Amino acid sequence: MTLAVERFQAFTPQHFVLIGIFLTGAVVLTLVGRSQRRSGTGHRFARVLAVVVVCVTVPAQLYQLAPWDFSVGSSLPLALCDFAWLAAAWGLWTRHRVPTALVYYWGLTLSIQAVFTPALDQ
Question: What is the pTM of this model?
Fold first, then answer.
């Protein structure tokens, strides 16, 4: 029995559902982060979130670079978005200005653009 894999298409109901999930997650994380800051437990929440970012992203990146999924066209070259998680974890863990600014600007420009207009040829 073979599974038919449906190719993702931009600007379809499936794409709009994913954009809605992304926007909902962004709003929820913003509200939770602000409430944590007011309650004084923001630093602990940020460190937990940093660990979650690393635990979710590292396996996905390793899978993308694994021999059975590797292709020069889609796995390389690594883009700036492939390193945004490093800056996010660093910024959440240390609260330094440099990684926080990187995540802020990469999030506003590169990652948002990738969600709304994905490169589907890869």
Answer: 0.67
